[in-house]
Amino acid sequence: MFKAKVRGIYSTALTRLLIEGGFKIVQPSAPIKERFRLQSSPEENSQPDIEIWDRPDRQGINVAGSAAPVERFLLILFEKLDDVIVRRQPSIYALPLDQCGEHLSITEIVAEALRESGASTYQGKMRADVEFPGLSKRRLDEIRSMVVPTLKGHHYYKACGGKIAYMLEMAEKLLEKGCPTKEVEELFMETIRREYPIEGAKIGIEHSKIDGRIFHLGEARITELNEQTGLIRLLRVFSSPGVYDGLDVRKEPGDYAVTSMVIGEWSFRTSYFSKSGEYKGTYVNINTPIELYPSRIRYVDLEADICMWPDGRIRKIDFEKLDEMVRRGYISERLRETISKKTNEVLDNLSPEIEKEIKYANIGEN
Question: Is 275 left (phi over 0), alpha (psi -120 to 50) or beta?
Fold first, then answer.
């Protein structure tokens, strides 16, 4: 039986997954020992085969240990979490890929190797950086709620850190005392509302890539924010010339972009206009469910994009990268299928006439 040590904001949900997956928990924290009724034993303080702890940004976890238990744990995550992203460190990745069929993904190859060997011959050490986008956080909430009272959005609010994470702890203590969930949720939401931006405020855009790179797309002004529907519209005005990616259309000083997104959705649209309001085209980004944090909007770009021009031409771009992401074990085949479904939904509802209507008249107010 593999032994695991878990720490961090995801520890309760992950401990449940590990136990269900046949792992033994060692060096448990006091809350974990109590929540899972772990009995004291001589083996309790033994060295783990795998260690799991939070990433510094709390958007996922670091995993390190012997290759076999690490891979077994990663396979559990792929099975349970629809949009999880796994970044293995290739320098210490032990699998002999040159002996495996090119038609198989890394995840499939590892699963087959573990089945055939019983994990006894799968040697070496490895690490992995695991990202939990919006859908994974929500699923981990559900798993945690099977163990201890949990507010909806628990892991997202924990990832916010600061006052929001602190207020979440206070709210969940009320749940543990038996206070009605609805009343606690309403009190919590009212308490944290002032931590979030309002219309007219500036907000950053954090564009994370599947391979782990992060691009900060600068600040945009919120021109519309609907708490009921989750709709956010952002305005950016450009001061330097260039070319719009994908569209291959000239960007000129004074041009502006209107970005329309809905919190929790798998895509967003950015439409470009000249200073005089002439529509230049639309770029649709396919991504993990959008999350709104107090100072930024965050998502993971899933490589697939759609471009639309004023004459109605539409083109999908970069979709070939998805096959490579699956093959290399970053994402699951299930996530690729979701991306395909979401892309078709976007294509069914994309129209240049609709995009032209969102142009923003008061550019000077930016």
Answer: alpha
